[in-house]
Amino acid sequence: MEPEVRHHEIYDLLCEIVGSDYVADDDFAKLTYSCDAGIYPGISPGIIVRPKSSEEVADIIKLANRTGTPVIPRGGGASLFGFPRGEPGRSIVIDLTRMDEVINIDEKNRIVTVEAGTTCSKLATIVKRKGYHLPTVWFTYYYATIGGLLAGVVGGGGDKDFASIGATGDIVNGFKVVLPNGDIIQTGSGPGTNTNQITTFTRNCPGPDLTGLFINSCGMFGVITEATLQLFPIPRINEPGSFLFDNVDSSWQAIYSLMHRYPIPYSSLIGISPEGVKIITGEEIDKWAFLYAVRGDSSEEVSAKHKMIETICKDAGGTSGSEITDRVAQGAVVTAEVMRETPSKAYLKGAVATHEFIAPAGDLLQLYKTMDAEIKKRYTDDFEKYHLMRRDYLAPWGRGVIFGAINIYYDAADLEAVKRVAVISREVNTLYVKLGAFLDLPQGYASQITAFYFSPTYFNFLRTLKSIIDPNNIMCPGIYNL
């Protein structure tokens, strides 16, 4: 006799909304959705539902409110800091990847409207055919979704050009969002605010910047289902370059000087530590590598920008890079499809635990040196015991802000190493925040670390907003300790 299948308490009701083919609560499905791309232990949800429209998302949220069931929105699963806590064994995961249509490319106004479950690579490929580019994300280009990126990363993330353009969130004109009560709101200066305007052409006109409320919110204020973003013409020329520096001080001197030039001469720029250079190239190059790209519409413009960069780098003690580092620059900071085309041996070195931070440019060098000294003091024995490797990098994030990382490669088949790196990762990210930096991926447990150092006034204000917008606390409970 077949054993009776025991479904989640709202299984049938969810099937009525999206159809039984798009609802799952078996153990295998729950295991698949219990974790992300990071190294931290999973938390099993109760049921997974895959809607096709904003209206279906709204019906799911209304049902969750009636039944008091926590909801966790999910895109491509590219987050790195653990599945949101929710209510283990009961939460609804709303998988948005069926909502993957590019709705409209408005060439007249240079904007695109896209569903939140669309991957960054799909969107970039489609707009590229029209002659446009938009910054999305860098290393998770192929599997991060637009909604997950904008909701789950500081500033909405950034692609290879974040050094000059800044955050992806800066080019968002508006969202369609399903609120925690099931209402659907459109933000930005379009039909969601002025019903006589059909184009979401900016986010700044209609009053408070409600679009910004949902960027980096981790889904706690609602589910982003559509986004309208700005488009940029693809430059005619995009050229790489590289320099080598003896130490982090001289490399940073060049970066700091260049990021405060006006106009900024580079489109992309990143400084990589000597061990990181070895990981990427497979070569023994005991130098800090400075990889950059210059873009423009004429050879004269590009040549002038190269000359400015060359002068500043040489004044800081840099020497021209090698053919190898120039080739890496071509893949890493010129080509958007970095995961496929970078001539890199990095992915042969094992899995990587990501420790990325955002800090003010003027404080960066001291913060980085403090972190470097602490990691060497605390974890040198671990690096030797578990054969761990570091890849550090520093890069501008627009003007005045620095994006940095001390990432650790480890053998994912060594379970003891995995457990130890998870502990190190928590401690490293906590130290970042304790020193005044911000984690750029405040998802899962990282949001809890971030919230621990919030000022009481800020935390209380955030809690008040959450309680007003989501009085039943069904949206991602536990994010930012709320």
Walk me through this protein's architecture.
With 482 residues, this protein is α+β, with helices and mostly antiparallel strands. Helices cover 36% and strands 20% of the residues. The protein is built from 16 helices and 20 strands. Strands 12, 13, 14, 15, 16, 17, 18, 19 and 20 form a 9-stranded antiparallel β-sheet that branches. A 5-stranded antiparallel β-sheet has the order 5-6-10-8-9. Strands 1-2-4-3 form a 4-stranded mixed β-sheet. A hairpin with a 5-residue loop joins strand 8 and strand 9 (184-186). It is globular.
What is this entry, summarized?
By secondary structure, this protein is an alpha+beta fold. It has 16 helices and 20 strands.
Average pLDDT taken over every residue: 90
Low-confidence stretches: 336-348
Quick one: overall form?
A: globular
Radius of gyration: 23 Å
Please bin the fraction of helical residues.
25-40%
Structural class: alpha+beta
SS strand fraction: 15-25%
Count the E strands: 20
Quaternary structure type: single chain
Largest sheet: 9 strands, antiparallel
List the total number of helices: 16
Q: How far is the first residue's CA from the last residue's CA?
A: 46 Å
